[in-house]
Amino acid sequence: MLISFITFIAMQPNIEQLKATYKNLPSDKLINLAISEAASLRPEAFEILKTEIKSRGLDNDITNGIDAQFIDTTSLAFDDYVLLIRSQPCPVCNSAKQPLNAVVIGTVKSFILLTRYKRKLMIACPTCLQQANQKGTSTTALLGWWGLPWGIIRSAQALTGNMKANKKIRANEPSDTLIAFIKTNIGVIEGVRTNQQSLQLMLDSVNKR
Fold first, then answer.
1. Which of 3, 11, 27, 124 could crosslink 92 through cysteines, CB 3.0-4.6 Å?
2. Interacting residues of 197 by C-beta distance below 8 A, sequence separation 6+
3. Do the domain assignments include residue 75?
4. Is residue 148 part of a domain?
5. Rounded to an integer, what distance in angstroms lies between the CA atom of residue 187 and that of residue 62?
6. What is the pLDDT of residues 40-69, one digit of tens each?
7. Domain ends where: 43, 68, 93?
């Protein structure tokens, strides 16, 4: 165990190596690292990253995006991000009448020896989420069972998951799926929070994955 720990420490880059690495990164990759992975960096790497960003004179929104990754999900500050996303027009139907939510929808298609199980994250208004959930459920019920043995197994998993998702769609509170999405992408959200078009593009890209 001690040898493994020493090996792990030895594999980590030192301060000077970190400085050189970040200094040589193109600005687009440095920004992507900052807004997506800053919270996973060890403290010294985090400080070096912020210093490099400031030395290049990059947008202050990037630094804000870094800081946002450390906001606790139970805080009022995090609630502001949830409200921001939920108040956007639906990326599917463009309606702003209902607060957005997010669920994972399962769809299974089987062709005797081949079974395809797709789990798709979707952010939309409750009406559009329910329609998508019903489509995934209907497709699975019709086409999911024909593969052996995985068609039966995956279909049961998808249908069970979709039933649970349907309950979350009907709830007024943000789903755990939406909370997790915002937490994971909070740095990106902070970077575009004042740009309505960029927010819409971000949500739309999620549904097209």
1. 124
2. none
3. no
4. yes
5. 8
6. 788 888 888 888 888 888 777 787 888 888
7. 68
The residue type at 97: K
Among residues 68, 91, 108, the one where a domain terminates is: 68
Which residues form the domain of 52? 2-68
pTM of full prediction above 0.85: no
Give the tens place of pLDDT for each residue, 173-203: 999 999 999 999 999 899 888 889 999 999 9
- Assess if residue 15 is contained within a domain: yes
